[in-house]
């Protein structure tokens, strides 16, 4: 349900964010009692500044005011994906093949709900990941959260 709400918001906000020249990386709608947080991640080839976030926040707020897709009170946060970039789509998992990622799963894999491993791309619409020398094949529905693990060299 939460993933579907975020997907709807992603589709709604993508044109507005793209019109500013940014990529909409993903949207998280986090419930916190009566209130919630709507976190929007944007990116650009040359990175994201605070001014970029402010511009995007203004544009996104306008769309949200008109469309009113979020019930109740919420706080809007717009930010860059950062070094521990969240992964939302199969394209993200494919794009970051070879990098380390940490996943929180909806469905345990080998009894574990949290796994860290190296991304192996996408096969048959499933995320491929090497976890401790074993191949994990996971659907997006099995993954609750995914983030890159920064590897500083």
What overall form do the CA principal axes indicate? Answer: globular
Number of strands: 8
| CATH-level-2 architecture of the largest domain | 2-Layer Sandwich
Indicate the percent of residues in helices: 25-40%
Strand residue content:
35-45%
CATH topology of the largest domain: GMP Synthetase, Chain A, domain 3
Q: Determine Rg (CA atoms, Å).
A: 16 Å
| Number of alpha- plus pi-helical segments | 3
At the fourth level of CATH, the homologous superfamily of the largest domain is RimP-like superfamily, N-terminal
Strand order of the biggest β-sheet:
7-6-5-4-8
Q: Report the uncertain regions.
A: none
In the CATH scheme, the class of the largest domain would be Alpha Beta
How many distinct folded domains?
A: 2
Order of helices and strands: HEEHEHEEEEE
Q: What is the first-to-last residue Cα distance? A: 39 Å
Q: What can be said about the biggest beta sheet?
A: 5 strands, antiparallel
């Amino acid at each position: 349900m939460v993933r579907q709400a975020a997907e709807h918001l992603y589709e709604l906000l993508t044109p507005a964010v793209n019109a500013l020249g940014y990529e909409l990386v993903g949207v998280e709608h986090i419930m916190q009692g009566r209130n919630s947080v709507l976190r929007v991640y944007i990116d650009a080839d040359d990175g994201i500044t605070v001014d970029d976030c402010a511009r995007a926040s203004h544009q996104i707020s306008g769309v949200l005011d008109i469309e009113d897709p979020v019930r109740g009170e919420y706080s809007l946060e717009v930010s860059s994906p950062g070094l521990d970039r969240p992964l939302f789509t199969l394209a993200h998992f494919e794009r970051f093949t070879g990098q380390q990622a940490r996943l929180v799963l909806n469905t345990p894999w080998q009894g574990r709900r949290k796994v860290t491993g190296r991304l192996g791309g996408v096969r048959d619409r499933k995320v491929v990941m090497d976890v401790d020398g074993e191949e994990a094949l996971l659907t997006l529905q099995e993954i609750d959260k995914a983030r890159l693990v920064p590897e500083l060299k």
